[in-house]
Design a protein that fits this description.
Elements lengths: L12 E5 L8 E8 L2 E5 L7 H10 L2 E3 L5 H13 L6 E6 L35 E6 L4 E7 L6 E6 L2
Parallel strand pairs: 5-8
Antiparallel strand pairs: 1-2, 2-3, 3-8, 4-8, 5-6, 6-7
The structure holds calcium ion (CA).
Pfam families: Lectin_C (PF00059)
InterPro entries: C-type_lectin-like (IPR001304), C-type_lectin-like/link_sf (IPR016186), C-type_lectin/snaclec_domain (IPR050111), CTDL_fold (IPR016187)
Protein name: C-type lectin domain-containing protein
Length: 158
């Protein structure tokens, strides 16, 4: 899907307009970090499914990490902007338990981004993946209950 984006500079906020449905008006602000564009929800918390649906309504998806560089760039941006919180990613094992994948690609979470000891599927009910932190830096991915409420990041499809 082609989308018209008009960056006005690195790491600055800008507005993405829908090229296919002008009636929708300006989309939420997406921020360029590296070579991707993200909507970072810093106030409203949602459960994983609701966060996923919200990203879809923006024409985006919950964030996935394809490279270690992306993890570094995004987490550096978050720390620099004092956004240090558990944050939903698109990762889950909802399709096949024990097999954490990114949505919607179903690519396995192959990078070693897990916080040490995770994913642990504690009590057998942790199936959705957040970026987690120690209060000052992000420490990796953690599987948690999908019905918990967290902030989230949407990523525009390439
Ligand atoms: Ca866990």
């Amino acid at each position: 899907m082609a989308s018209t984006v008009q960056p006005i500079g690195n790491n600055t906020n800008f507005t993405v307009y829908s090229p296919t449905n002008a009636a929708l008006g300006p989309r939420p602000l997406f921020t360029q970090i590296g070579n991707k564009f993200y909507f970072i929800e810093t106030e409203v918390t949602k459960n994983w499914h609701d966060a996923y649906a919200t990203c879809r309504q923006m024409g985006a998806h919950l964030i996935s990490f394809d490279t270690a560089d992306e993890w570094v760039q995004v987490t550096n941006y978050l720390v620099k902007n004092k956004i240090i919180s558990d944050i939903w990613t698109s990762g889950s094992e909802l399709a096949i338990q024990g097999n954490h994948v990114w949505f919607p690609t179903t690519d396995p979470i192959a990078l070693n981004l897990w916080k040490p000891g995770e994913p642990n599927n504690r009590d057998g009910v942790e199936h959705c993946d957040v970026m987690t932190h120690d209060g000052s830096v992000f420490t990796g991915l953690n599987d948690v209950r999908c019905d918990r409420f967290f902030k989230y990041i949407c990523q525009l499809s390439n």
